[in-house]
Fold:
Amino acid sequence: MKTIRFFLLGLLSVSMVFLSSCKEDPEDEGSSFVGDYIMVDATISEPLTLTTNEIGDLSIPAGVDITAMMQAALLGSIQCDPANSIIELREDYSLFLSCSSSMDEVDAGTWEEQNGSVIVLNMNSTAIPSSPTGVVLTVTDVSLIGTLLSGQTSVPVAAQMLAGIVTAMTQGNATLDMDATPDAVPMTFTIDLQKQ
Structure:
């Protein structure tokens, strides 16, 4: 009788282990950042000093709007009006640029969510033709409130693009000293993307 009880107890234990392991695993819900976005704002968040030919050092304060410049730099390969240029963060972690007013689409690389507040955009040289190796954009302090994705990033900006900032800020009265400026200067800025 004791043998039967031990046998039944053993069988019951094995059954419990088997049944508990058959529970459905929760499905991976994916990233909340997956979606199509339009760049709506880029603003310098750390002051920058550039050397000009005419007036020496020119301080560019935090708060300067560089949206048009960043749209041209990061979305230029799609040949589309910036208001229609879509940044697609796909479920398979591929990154595409597309145009909502045409069928144009560019495989721009990959993206990853390092944690809930850091996204990395690995943009290839197809997306950023001016960079033979592409550009890695690490966006920190990321927040998704409603449909607005916001964060901060730092990227090397080509001297030619900085020359445009100097000209615009000085209303054409100064030019960037190209000999005193490295080929690329790190620029830190906030970025806002509107989810479509």
Remarks:
- Residues 6-12 have pLDDT under 50 and may be disordered.
